[in-house]
Design brief:
Helices cover 41% and strands 16% of the residues. The strands form three sheets. The chain has an eight-stranded parallel barrel with strand order 3-4-7-8-9-10-12-13, surrounded by four helices. Strands 5-6-11 form a three-stranded antiparallel beta sheet, with no helix packed on it. The chain has helices at residues 2-10, 15-33, 66-70, 115-124, 126-129, 149-160, 185-206, 222-234, 270-284, 299-307, 317-322, 325-342; strands spanning 42-44, 47-49, 53-55, 76-82, 95-98, 103-106, 133-138, 166-170, 212-216, 239-242, 263-266, 290-293, 312-315. 51% of the residues are buried.
């Protein structure tokens, strides 16, 4: 019952200000807010997860709060999106709540302190040292031309490789100009080929294999979904994350803040992201795992992602609206769902 009172206070503040204060609070009182989380071990991408419930990228861009978030019971954390050089992102205000629909619109623009600062934070954290699964989400700087985007991804992959449990390639944010063009045909093929070659080179160099995941948008037609699935198989990627935020405003039409530009997340994106995930699962035919994300606001939402073909789930906006209780609820629901699948 505590979190609704906390949320009322935070929702009285500007969204980005509240986010900063809230994350400091997680560092200090996470142990008081956490509920026991049902064990539900799963193996995905060759990694052993204590439970299939993950934090999506975006909440902790620079890895400033890894240990506090880990105490809430997540089976894995994903930090970033990080870029080679620090950047401020888009002008403020750039983060907007739509509480009537349990939605959030953001146009942050990959604001982050740069990959070197993220690595300092990761190396100072206890969670990775104790075997916690930490994904690092990588992107390109806004000032890097789109035809040179691969250079930024390769720089980030090279730098984070030895400190990441897995690396996510984010080509689906709507808030960096032309970024989603990288999801298309030849551009995607070229990027995935370069990243796969780099991954294999780094595996040899470091003596360990770190999986690569691709994060895609929900605003894809059937032909695009099939083409992406084919490219992922062809280049032997290790996982796909479906999905990022949407440019659609379906479900929030006419509500305050709904006309703001940026990507919409939270409950309104659930149906759209799950529909894309289902089609992707059919196209992939089980050849690589899917991490389902988008609109998970409760245990049953997460269960639907699993039934639609996901092996793991992540959330961000649901955490803002529901608080730490959502971690335990989703973990318990998925423990039952996965137990039934194995019986």
């Amino acid at each position: 019952m505590l979190y609704p009172l906390i949320r009322k206070f935070f929702f009285s503040l500007d969204a980005e200000t509240a986010h900063g204060i809230g994350m400091l609070g997680v560092d200090r009182v996470a142990c008081l807010m956490a509920k026991p989380v049902a064990p539900c071990p799963v193996e995905v991408m060759g990694l052993k997860f204590p439970n299939p419930v993950g934090l999506a990228a975006g909440l902790d861009k620079n890895g400033d709060h890894i240990d506090g978030l880990a105490r809430l019971g997540f089976g894995f954390l994903e930090i970033g999106t990080i870029t080679p050089r620090p950047q401020d992102g888009n002008p403020k205000p750039r983060l907007f709540r739509i509480p009537e629909a349990q939605g959030i619109i953001n146009r942050m623009g990959f604001n982050n302190a740069g990959v070197d600062q993220l690595l300092r934070n990761v190396r100072a954290a206890e969670f990775p040292k104790k075997g916690g699964i930490l994904g690092i989400n990588i992107g390109k700087n806004a000032t890097t031309p789109i035809d040179k985007a691969a250079d930024d991804y390769l720089i980030c992959l090279d730098k984070v490789y030895n400190d990441a449990s897995y690396v996510t390639v984010n080509i689906s944010s709507p808030n960096t100009k032309n970024l989603r063009e990288l999801q298309k045909d030849e551009a995607l093929d070229d990027l995935l080929a370069q990243l796969k070659a780099k991954q294999l080179q780094l595996a040899e160099q470091h003596g360990k294999y770190v999986p690569l995941a691709l994060k895609i948008a929900p605003d894809l037609d059937d032909q695009q979904i099939t083409a992406i699935a084919d490219a992922l198989r062809r280049h032997r990627f290790d996982a796909v994350i479906a999905t990022n935020t949407t440019l659609s405003r379906e479900g929030v039409e006419g509500l305050p803040n709904a006309a703001e530009t940026g990507g919409l997340s939270g409950k309104p994106v659930f149906a759209k992201s799950t529909a894309v995930q289902k089609k992707l699962a059919i196209a992939l035919a089980g050849e690589l795992p899917i991490i389902g994300v988008g609109g998970i606001m409760g245990g049953e939402d997460a269960a639907e992602k699993i039934r639609a073909g996901a092996s793991l789930v992540q959330f961000y906006s649901g955490f803002i609206y529901r608080g730490p209780d959502l971690v335990a609820e989703v973990a318990e629901t998925l423990a039952h769902v996965l137990r039934k699948k194995t019986v």
